[in-house]
Amino acid sequence: MPRASFDQLSAFVAVAEEGSFSKAARKLNKDRSTLHRQVADLEIDWGIALFEREGKAPKLTEQGESLVRASRLIIYQMNALESATDSLHLGDKTQISICHDSSISSTAIQQMDHAIRSQHPMTVINWLSRSRKMALALLVEGQADFCITLNQGALHPDTGVSFINLGYPEFNYYAHKHSPLANKQQVSLPELQLHRQFVLEDLEQSMFGQQTLISSQTSSVSEAMALVKLLELEGFALLPTNMVEKHHTELVPLNLDFALQSGRLGYVLLYPSSALKKPWQQDIIDVVGNWFKHTC
Questions:
Q1: Which of 23, 55, 142, 292 is most buried, most CB within 10 Å of its CB?
Q2: Using 50, 70 and 90 to split pLDDT, how confident is the model at 154?
Q3: Degrees (nearest 5) of the Cα angle 268, 273, 275?
Q4: Is it the case that residue 157 has pLDDT exceeding 50?
Q5: Distance CA 200, CA 222 (A)
Q6: The pLDDT of residue 145 is above 90
Q7: Shortest CA distance to 58 belongs to which of 98, 15, 26?
């Protein structure tokens, strides 16, 4: 049997951190006499002195100093355990997997993850970069919970997958700032066709992606970061504006004489169909939806 209770450990750590029984009592919302008793009982149970009490303020002994960190860790773990049981009681999943395609920026993932974790701190969130086809298979098999992907409008009721239209973020054609394309006031379609075009694989495989292919020299790239590095060497690419402006200032948008404004591509959030959404599902839908509302 443990010789220390949670209340005793809490009292010990609070007094050590506050340097005062009175301040620790206020912090824990307890009587000072209660804390004195709990710490004294702990010292008896452990058979060591945790504080020197000769002066006005309690001072940790050498033995007490060596035990504060371990005691603080136990309190943290107990609080985490309580939070986890509360979350499970409310119907939270212990682990959630969200698939996304390569056009979703790292900033988007970071911001959405932070918002989800603030509501479900004990839930593990997995972010999986998967093609639309693979993500749909994972959703149907129950191995993924959500997928953020480009809209193709190809879902049918018998797939067992529901969707929410998220919006239409802005896309632009970009080149590296040292590219000859970047130095032109306007770029014509014949000029662009002479240069190599890099295409995100997920975008190329979408129904809209094929309409964005301009050059006869197209190279498909799976990862956005790899594509950006390739642009340092040559060529151009169609990329989400929010991805470029926040992370890749070395890329510049091309002023095309055949396009009066930036293009926009639609995204959807896919998830397994069910008669009733669970609270954690609705929370994630809200977080992802709010991010796209802000971006679009």
A1: 292
A2: low
A3: 130
A4: no
A5: 6
A6: yes
A7: 15
Distances 138 to 135, 141, 161, 189, 226 between C-alpha atoms, Å:
5, 5, 11, 40, 25
CB 123 within 8 A of CB 80: no
What pLDDT digit, counting tens, does each position of 76-94 carry? 888 777 766 765 666 667 8
Whether 89 and 253 have beta carbons less than 8 Å apart is answered as no
- The contacts of residue 269 (CB under 8 Å, 6+ apart) are 146, 147, 148, 163, 164, 166, 285, 288, 289
Cβ pair 132, 150 in contact under 8 A: yes
Over the stretch 226-238, which tens digit does the pLDDT of each residue have? 999 999 999 999 9
CA pair distance 146, 98, nearest whole angstrom: 5
Structural domains of the chain in order of their starting residue, each with its CATH number: 6-89 (1.10.10.10), 95-168+266-295 (3.40.190.10), 170-264 (3.40.190.10)
Q: Taking all residues of the chain, what is their mean pLDDT, rounded to a whole number?
A: 88
Q: Any residues with CB less than 8 A from the CB of 48 and at least 6 apart, and which?
A: 61, 63, 64
The 3-state DSSP composition of the chain as helix, strand, coil percent (nearest 5) reads 45, 20, 35
Helix (H, G, I), strand (E, B) or coil at 148: strand
Contact yes or no for 269/166 (Cβ under 8 A): yes
